[in-house]
Design a protein that fits this description.
Pfam family, one: COX2_TM
Largest sheet: 5 strands, mixed
CATH superfamily of one domain: Cupredoxins -  blue copper proteins
Keywords: Electron transport, Membrane, Respiratory chain, Translocase, Transmembrane, Transmembrane helix, Transport
CATH architecture of one domain: Sandwich
Distance between the termini: 30 Å
CATH class of one domain: Mainly Beta
Structural class: alpha+beta
EC number: 7.1.1.9
Protein name: cytochrome-c oxidase
Shape: elongated
Bound molecules: copper (II) ion
Helix content: 40-55%
Strand content: 5-15%
Strand order of the largest sheet: 3-2-1-5-8
Order of helices and strands: HHHHEEEEEEEEHHEEHHH
GO cellular component, one term: membrane
Length: about 375
């Protein structure tokens, strides 16, 4: 009903506006120029507007670089990241250079050659030489960019098996991540969504001996300088594993395994100590400090101070809590990594532990609920935050 009333009111307003404009037209002096054809004055004001517009977009561009330049990512923390950044920098630099010149010329010419009663447009059919020049230059430039891009792409995407990369599975589900280390044998056990039951949250095949030493964790640890090969699997919908600091992203597709490999080069500690990150953390904490003053005044709990950590994000809108789908990544020395991995339970032992009490208490169903509960309460917590 309200919608209906609003529509009627809007329609009446439109009619009123139209009637007022008619009255306004009738009240104009009879000798005023009411022609629909543009005269010199119209052309002049449009020419000036064209020039003003290009100046406006240039000013906005410079302002954005000035104001938001600090939101750029820091130096890449992976081996291939440098190549990726160079390709990006060259492509964007070239596009911007051409864009600034051609856009400027387009608007300037619209101003300079604006219509005048006394002038007649020149009929100029074609010029082979000019057309050749403006065709061949983009062809060579674009071909160069594409070939360079293809080489970089294959360099990044080709996984050198000779380097013996450490195999880790990244498992996505609504709305969290799990990582599965392939253990001593560096081979992941087979897995299928049909095996998901109880503590076997990732559906690892219990009958596959390769899976026994796999280790499933909620936090991704990586040894610095060691190549890693990620195998991605999704439980439900399309996700995208996005590692911004390592310049890596791969779709995570239900029903298939996708992969991506990289070598982390900067540890979490080193990144925290970098000038970029020190400044960034300081500015985030300044904002939080200000916010905390308000929160204290309102008698609400305050925000913790921020500390940088690498993270893995989901970069496909996969549902309600997509925005909160992230996993912490810690890049550390090989010794620290080995010590941490040593502490993690293997898949085999997890299954054994879960089976042991189940046999006596006969409660496999309850086990299933226990593993699902944290997910559910997480989802609820996330909704509460919204
Ligand atoms: Cu997702």
């Amino acid at each position: 009903m309200t919608v209906f009333l609003v529509i009627i009111v809007l329609a009446l307003l439109a009619v009123t506006g139209w009637q007022i404009s008619k009255i306004f037209q009738l009240s104009q002096r009879s000798d005023a120029d009411t022609s629909q054809i543009a005269n010199d004055k119209d052309n002049k004001s449009n020419g000036i507007l064209m020039l003003a517009f290009v100046i406006f977009i240039y000013v906005i561009t410079v302002y954005c670089f000035w104001e938001y330049g600090r939101f750029y990512l820091p130096e890449a923390a992976s081996e291939h990241g440098g190549e990726y950044d160079t390709l990006m920098f060259i492509s964007i630099g070239l596009i911007m250079f051409v864009q600034i010149i051609t856009q400027g010329l387009l608007h300037y010419f619209a101003f300079k050659y604006k219509g005048k009663k006394t002038q007649k447009a020149l009929f100029y059919a074609d010029n082979d030489k000019l057309e050749f020049i403006w065709t061949i230059i983009p062809v060579i430039t674009l071909a160069g960019l594409i070939i360079y891009g293809l080489f970089t792409w294959s360099d990044i995407m080709n996984i050198n098996e000779e380097e013996d990369p450490m195999v880790i599975e990244i498992y996505a589900y609504q709305f969290d991540w799990r990582a599965r280390y392939s253990g001593e044998d560096n081979t992941l056990g087979k897995a299928n969504v049909r095996f998901i039951e109880g503590v076997n949250q990732l559906g690892v095949d219990e009958s596959d001996s390769y899976g026994e030493d796999d280790k499933i964790v909620t936090e991704l640890h990586l040894p610095v300088g060691k190549p890693v090969l990620f195998k991605f699997r999704s439980q439900d919908v399309l996700h995208s594993a996005y590692f911004p600091f390592f310049r890596a992203q791969m779709n995570v597709v239900p029903g298939m395994i996708t992969q991506f490999g990289f070598t982390p080069t900067i540890t979490t500690e080193e990144m925290r100590a970098s000038e970029y990150m020190v400044d960034k953390v300081e500015s985030v904490n300044d904002v939080r400090k200000e916010r905390n003053e308000d929160l204290i005044a309102q008698g609400e709990p305050t925000l913790d101070s921020y500390e940088f950590d690498y993270f893995l994000l989901c970069n496909k809108i996969c549902g309600q809590a997509h925005y909160n789908m992230q996993m912490k990544i810690i890049v550390e020395s090989e010794e620290d990594f080995n010590a941490w991995l040593e502490e993690q339970p293997t898949f085999g032992s997890t299954i054994e532990d879960s089976n042991a009490p189940a046999e006596t208490e006969e409660a496999p169903a309850e086990d299933g609920n226990e593993t699902e509960e944290p997910q559910e309460s997480e989802a609820v917590a996330v909704l509460d935050k919204e």
